[in-house]
């Protein structure tokens, strides 16, 4: 069977919120240890490629990105990074410019094209796709002969049903969906940021978010509230005929130390 004829096994990890100090984290959860545990869980499955969709290093420290590399090197597959609102995008480019772990924005695998967008708005929690990014997306979709495409970004382009969180998503989603509407090869849009699972379909496009590898936000609430669910990741099986299978796998238990009263997210 040729590479063009086999299904692609993709793993998405998101929002690890690492620090220079490996002993700290969010709301009592050690984010480095939790990230390691989720990566170990992901290593139990077959994997061809991984996407890490932002909020990689909470304190934006050089040491934090070194810790990230240390863990991701164990995946031993091409791994592609997107900045979130808690990231230093410039440092990411210098640290992960090329190689097995990279910030490559356009990846062709078999019949599929993966397109990674930077929705970071420096100094802001919410996101935005500037004109340059949107033009790049339009060109990438127009010029590629890949029959099917997936788009990844950090910020949610649709409301997920949390009154406090939805205003902090992508600020100009209509611009993204204008581009997508002109390109029916787009099969899915996938993001992080919201620390919870989301799965809907709009005009034939699957809309998906993924749990954090650290703490989880409770869905469907008006004010910030943690959810007592284990961290996890999302898996994809991308078939050569354009069919997409996906699901979420979580750790068996909530990380030790979870404390809603501890120092935390800081939105």
Tags for this entry?
single chain; 267 residues; alpha/beta; Purple Acid Phosphatase, chain A, domain 2; six-stranded mixed sheet; 5 helices; 16 strands; 19% helix
Commentary on this structure:
Keywords: Hydrolase, Iron, Metal-binding. Pfam families: Metallophos. This is Calcineurin-like phosphoesterase domain-containing protein. GO terms for molecular function: cyclic-nucleotide phosphodiesterase activity; metal ion binding. This protein has 267 residues and is an alpha/beta fold. It has 5 helices and 16 strands. Strands 6-5-4-1-15-16 form a 6-stranded mixed beta sheet, with helices on one face. Strands 7-8-9-10-12-11 form a 6-stranded mixed beta sheet, with helices on one face. Strand 5 (79-82), helix 3 and strand 6 (101-102) form a beta-alpha-beta unit. The chain is globular. The N and C termini lie far apart (49 Å). The mean pLDDT is 94.
């Amino acid at each position: 069977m040729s590479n063009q004829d086999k299904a692609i096994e993709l793993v998405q990890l998101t929002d690890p919120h690492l620090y220079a100090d490996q002993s700290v984290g969010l709301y009592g959860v050690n984010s480095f240890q939790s990230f390691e545990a989720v990566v170990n869980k992901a290593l139990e499955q077959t994997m061809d490629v991984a996407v890490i969709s932002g909020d990689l290093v909470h304190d934006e420290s050089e040491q934090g990105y070194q810790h990230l590399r240390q863990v991701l090197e164990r995946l031993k597959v091409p791994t592609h990074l997107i900045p979130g609102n808690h990231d230093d995008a410039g440092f990411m480019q210098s640290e992960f410019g090329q190689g097995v772990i990279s910030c490559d924005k356009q990846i062709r695998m078999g019949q599929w094209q993966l397109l990674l967008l930077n929705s970071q708005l420096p100094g802001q929690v919410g996101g935005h796709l500037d004109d340059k990014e949107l033009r790049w997306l339009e060109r990438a979709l127009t010029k590629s002969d890949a029959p099917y495409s997936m788009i990844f970004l950090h910020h949610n382009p649709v409301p997920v049903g949390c009154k406090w969180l939805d205003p902090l998503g992508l600020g100009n989603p209509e611009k993204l969906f204008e581009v997508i509407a002109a390109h029916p090869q787009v099969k899915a849009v996938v993001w992080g940021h919201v620390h919870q699972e989301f799965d809907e379909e709009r005009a034939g496009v699957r809309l998906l978010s993924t749990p954090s590898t650290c703490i989880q936000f409770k869905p469907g609430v008006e004010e910030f509230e943690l959810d007592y669910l284990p961290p996890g990741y999302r898996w994809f099986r991308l078939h050569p005929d354009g069919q997409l299978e996906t699901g979420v796998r979580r750790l068996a238990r909530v990380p030790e130390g979870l404390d809603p009263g501890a120092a935390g997210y800081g939105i």
